[in-house]
Amino acid sequence: MTMHKYAHPKYFGKIARPLFWVSGYLAVIFWAVGLYLGLVESPPDYQQKDTVRIMYIHVPAAWMSLFVYASMAIAGLVFLIWKHVLAGLYIRSVAGLGAAFTLICLITGAIWGAPTWGTWWVWDARLTSVLILFFLYAGIIVILDSFDTQDAGLTAASWLAIIGSVNLPIIKFSVDWWNTLHQSASISSFERLADPAMDAAFLQPLLIMTVAYFCTYLAMASVRLDQELRMRKLMVAGAGME
Amino acid sequence: MTSTPNGNRAVDNKTFRNLFGAGMSILNFEMLQISRQNNYIVKAPFFYVMMITLFPLALGPDPALIEKISTGVLILSLLLACLFPVNNFFESDYDDKTLEQVLISHIPFGFFIFLKMMAHWLMAAGPLVLLSPVVAVTLQGHDPWAIFFAVIPASMLFVLLGIMGAALTVGTKQGGILLALLVLPLYIPVVIFTTFAAQPTLDAGNASAALAFLYAGLAISLPVIPLICSGILKMNME
After folding, report:
1. Does A1 have pLDDT greater than 50?
2. Residue B3: is its pLDDT beyond 60?
3. In this complex, do A142 and B181 lie within 8 Å of one another by their Cβ atoms?
4. Which of A167, A202, A186 minimizes the C-alpha distance to A52?
5. Are B186 and A155 inside 8 Å of each other by CB?
6. Fewer CB atoms < 10 Å away: N or C end of chain B?
7. Looking at the predicted complex, does its ipTM rise above 0.85?
8. Which pLDDT tens digit goes with each residue over B89-113?
């Protein structure tokens, strides 16, 4: 099967709507199930009591913020090398989404930190590097509209996304390299999914919430990308009229 | 510039010498141009010293307090003094098509940008580096040499990363805040490691480890950032 044909703007225009509806409905279902399991069904932690439930919002948001940034850096590479319009427009579409995930992660982290660490914010390596990630998203969003032409903005944003991706391994390993307040990963790799450092009662809602976040991302990214494509078509048509 | 008779560009001794000569004259020209046209050679050190002076005046002259905060004050003042002159670094060369002329010449584009950066660092940040140990004496409890050797890579990284931001924003006509917004996140690791390297209260092992990280970052950035800038500018001029 050749997936890359869907990368053609014409074909993407065809699958954008179905992709939005399917992933949108899935997102609603998974959010409902995940929130029910996480907030009602799952047991409170023996130490943190009910505050542990913030994890089901916090951890998937953190994962998605990294995933979205990595996908933007790859899209940036594709745009710079092959001048593929869809890749450039993808950056435009998901930059705000990624920033939102990062902000959710930071805010829920602060709310979680207040009762468990006794402070809203500490300048430890993990927190600071995620804050830098948020600033990088902000820089990309700002630079996208700073040029006369859309393509110049896409090129600059692609470069910035690639340059900023040096931050990703720093975020991932910050809890291992430095002795910080933030705990190290309970699920450090896909292999560890079968044998995580947490009980299955916590893991199950967490994974369902991760799927919910991912479906949300798919729905929002597809509808935003479709919108950007249509805007671009209008712009090209408008330029042709002159 | 002479090329070999059959027109190919094999890197023989002569080509290398020609390239070296071209490089030296570019460096010479850039430094001359900076010294004649931009007066930030004078402005930047004044700004730097005044910035540092303001902190003790604002926070009170308590020596214990100053000793605690002085490293951070020094580094942040250095950061700002390095960031401001970098604004619109490529603008005039971009507007009058100098960059395009260099691009079609035989001089490697990244090499040209590297020389431009070095000229800028020598002229704009060099005075700051030389001033730093002197300033450090006025801020209690510092080893001037520790400051000096931490400030060399720090100022160079500030300039290199700042110029990378200037390459990204070339043609936007807004510079300033936009440049700061793009570049400041990239400055954060430099600030952290420089503070560790120059902190007088820290034990020697940690300080020298941070210093090693700084120089390692510089060793990576010196060849890589000019190449990134040349990639950005080439795409911009297509």
Report:
1. no
2. no
3. yes
4. A202
5. no
6. C
7. no
8. 888 888 888 888 888 888 889 999 9
Q: 């995620």: which residue's tokens?
A: A130
Q: Residue B43 — pLDDT band, cuts 50, 70, 90?
A: confident
Contacts 24+ apart (CB under 8 A), A122-128: A122/A181, A124/A178, A124/A180, A124/A181, A124/A182, A125/A170, A125/A174, A125/A175, A125/A177, A125/A178, A125/A180, A125/A182, A126/A171, A126/A174, A126/A175, A126/A180, A126/A182, A127/A182, A128/B188
Q: Do B164 and A163 touch (CB under 8 A)?
A: yes
Q: What is the CA radius of gyration of chain A?
A: 20
B69, amino acid identity? I
Give phi and psi for A49, each to the nearest 5.
55, -135
CA–CA separation, A129 and B106 (whole Å): 42
pLDDT digits (tens, 9 = 90+) for A208-220: 999 999 999 999 9
Compute the count of residue pairs across chains A and B with CB atoms less than 8 Å apart: 49
**Statement: the pTM of the whole predicted model exceeds 0.90:** no
Token reading at A75: 């899209």
As a whole number of angstroms, the distance between CA B213 and CA B190 comes to 9
